[in-house]
Amino acid sequence: MRVVKSLLSFIAFPLLALSLTVTAQSDSELVYNGEIGRIINENCVVCHQEGGIGPMQFETYDQVRPWAPLIQLKVANREMPPYAYDQHIGIQDLIGDWRLEQAEIDKIVAWVDSGSPLGDPENALPPPDLRDPSEWNFARELGQPDLIVPSVPMDIPANGNDLWNTHYVSSGLTADRCIKAVQVKPRGDAQAVVHHANSSVEVVNENGERERYGMLTEYAMGKWGEMVPDGVCRTLPAGAEIRWSIHMFPGGVGATAQGEVIEDNVVEIGLWFHEEGYESSEQAYKQDLAQYNIQYEGAQERNANMVIPPNGYSITQGFHSFDHPVRIDSYQPHGHLRMNAASLEIFYPDTGVVEPISQISNWSATWHHSHIFEPDSAPLLPTGAVLVLRQWYDNTANNPNNPDPDQWVYGGSRTGDEMSHAWLAVTHLDEEGYEKLVAEREAKQQRSVAGND
What does pTM read for this prediction? Predict the structure, then answer.
């Protein structure tokens, strides 16, 4: 009888959304000086530290404890860590995925419901491994960048209209190089006022004229950076010039906005390269990053005729196909303050099948993520397959990012306007390369199934 009462008490214990796996754990795990502190140190402190972009610090229990109920709410709703990417829809194997595991979310919820206990003071956690906010994001894994390309310095006023600056900077390269990783980083306090910073590559032809070679990378608020998969080459050619196109928004956007003059702001590109000669490898297919436009209904050009009525909604849709096989390595939707959702699908004309790839139902302009697919999961498209891109817009008071739902919103480049496109990193294959990748994946799946028998 005592066992039955104990079991009933155990089942009735009021822990919101807590699985039996979590409830079966020892109490020592659900304390700050245990599993909870580990989760916070590994996932939150990177932003919530002194000098970080988070509005409060989470380096110690005393700093965390007052915010525990808010942490519980944000974590349970998957608003924090800030990585909007829908669960259980499309590809879930991503490089640089900030999302917590459901078991970790359950532990945070249970900890707060139990009073956010510290645990044994003598069993204190070691201090978190703090990352210098000014450090390059890939430095711990790849070391310092092989090349840093700065913009010219720019002054950004505390308020006023959107500003744009376009100029050229020499790369200084004397040989073609394949990019391994790339990050764009505004210096210091400028993170909140640099709306985007696009960089394209141009080369000088035999007539001394600049010719566009392709995109280098794209930066928008909150973007971490891009990793280029092994076996492909995104080339930065010898003698290349970088064409900066930088959009700045005086006063800033988001919780980290400074609202003050920022003088001599510089935006930098950090580049990590493969060894010289990598591009000559038989496996090094060419990869590029490009902007794929999503048209408004009836429009023939990007953003043309895009009108979102006051207190209304809108959707855009675009289709893209290739005359050769490709692999989609990353997907990054782009919009402004009224955009709130995006999706990527593949339509196969031969079968009529539509395959969901990615969906983001809680998109925010303050966190642009390049969703990088694991190489073994990245979509492989046969010749003629069609990319289907959609984006949704909410110009109502229900959208927390909306500065004024009573305004008509048009397509354009200003922060208060809207845009509709996605950045895709695409590896361009031939039929032989496509068939080889398909065969390699099928072999791995067969080995995986056999290993589970």
Answer: 0.84
